[in-house]
Amino acid sequence: MNKKLYSPEELDFNAFNKIGKEWMLISAYSENAHPDKKYNTMTASWGGVGVLWNKNVFFCFVRPQRFTKKFIDDSDTVTLSFFGEEYKPALTKCGRTSGKDTDKIAEAGLTAVIQDGSVFFEQAKLTVVGKKLFAQYMDENSFIDKSLIGTCYPDKDYHMVYVCEIKEIYGE
Asked: Which fold has domain 4-171?
């Protein structure tokens, strides 16, 4: 891997564009989550970055039925990978196809890099490696705006929220 290591303060990072419009891959590596696979990834457009508990953090959201969740739950680290516009079809593939039944990473034309118990992708322009600090399911009773439940959770499949301390950032 030929990427530069950055500190959070060095980045010119617009989370609204990077996450909300360009999307990202949330990935995790685990020796134990699945008998035949050691890592998985999923496309996401919900999340953020900031400072919490005096730490630089990112937070991401994963629904309980996502195959990637097993890997995240069994790992100490989670990665967020960001790509150029030319990889939008690959991210679409990774968002619409389950890694449970197919090698969607290979089908998307991505090359996984395993490093220090984390997984990310050679083609990513930016990768953020985080150490899990907190995980909790969203709770129906915690919604102040109850209209969000009908809009975003008609099946009551509330996301798990993960807060991760940013440990490393790799970029071009």
From this structure: Pnp Oxidase; Chain A (2.30.110)
